[in-house]
Every structure is written in C-alpha cells, then in structure tokens.
C-alpha cells in the first residue's frame, strides 16, 4: 500500500470554517477518487501549529495507481475543487508539497 500526503496552507485560518467548506466539496471529491483504479481511502488533517495548514492523505494499492492518479489529471481535478473551497494562501506560503510513502509491513 502507498500513502500520498499533499500539504499546503490555505487562506482560511479558522478551522470551523475550513471544515465546513471541506464538507461542502467532499461529495464532489470522493466519487472522483473512488473512480480511480487502486484508490483505497482519503483523509484530511488540519494543522495545529499554524492556522490554515491542511494535508490530504490518500491511500493507494500500488505506486503505479498513485502515479496514474497524479499524472493522469485526477489529482489536478481534485486540487481544483479543493482550492475553490479552500483557497491556497498567497505565495510563498501557499506552496503545494506532495510526499509519497510505502506503508511499512
């Protein structure tokens, strides 16, 4: 199994507002992810150290499944929906960083 962690900072620093906005867009995001081959799950994390930090955690059956999602346009579609609901912070604070890990057995 492979875990992809996408981190960024949004302009929304209030967690309650951020959660409400995310809840409004999740019904559009989940079906897109569920249609991707090898998709297992999605979670979101809210940063506790600084307002507006968010991480999207997706789990995939294989690294190829994850790469297909990222390189095939699925990740860009999901990012567009997320960014419309939770706008990215201004440069340089709003950089998107993706890290990919294999789950240790």
Name some characteristics of this structure.
105 residues, 3 helices, 4 strands, 29% strand
Model description:
With 105 residues, the chain is an alpha+beta fold. It has a four-stranded antiparallel β-sheet. A hairpin with a 6-residue loop joins strand 2 and strand 3. Helix 1 runs antiparallel to helix 3.
Quick structural summary:
The chain has 105 residues and is α+β, with helices and mostly antiparallel strands. The chain contains three helices and four strands, in the order E-H-E-E-H-H-E.
* H-E string: EHEEHHE
Strand runs, count: 4
The major β-sheet equals: 4 strands, antiparallel
- Nearest-integer average pLDDT: 94
N-to-C terminal Cα separation, in Å? 9 Å
What class, by secondary structure content? alpha+beta
Number of helices: 3
Helical proportion?
A: 25-40%
Taking pLDDT < 50 over at least 5 consecutive residues as the criterion, the unreliable ranges are none
Layout of helices and strands:
Elements: E1 2-9, H1 15-34, E2 39-46, E3 53-60, H2 63-71, H3 74-85, E4 97-102
Helix pairs in contact: 1-3
């Amino acid at each position: 199994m492979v875990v992809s962690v996408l981190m960024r900072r949004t302009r929304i620093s209030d967690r309650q507002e951020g959660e409400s906005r995310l809840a409004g867009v999740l019904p559009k995001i989940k079906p897109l992810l569920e249609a991707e081959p090898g998709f297992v799950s999605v979670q979101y994390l809210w940063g506790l150290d600084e307002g507006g930090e968010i991480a999207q955690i997706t789990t995939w059956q294989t690294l190829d499944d994850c790469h297909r999602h990222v390189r095939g346009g699925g990740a860009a579609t999901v990012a567009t929906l997320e960014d419309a609901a939770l706008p990215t912070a201004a440069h340089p604070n709003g950089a998107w960083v993706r890290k990919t890990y294999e789950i240790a057995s």
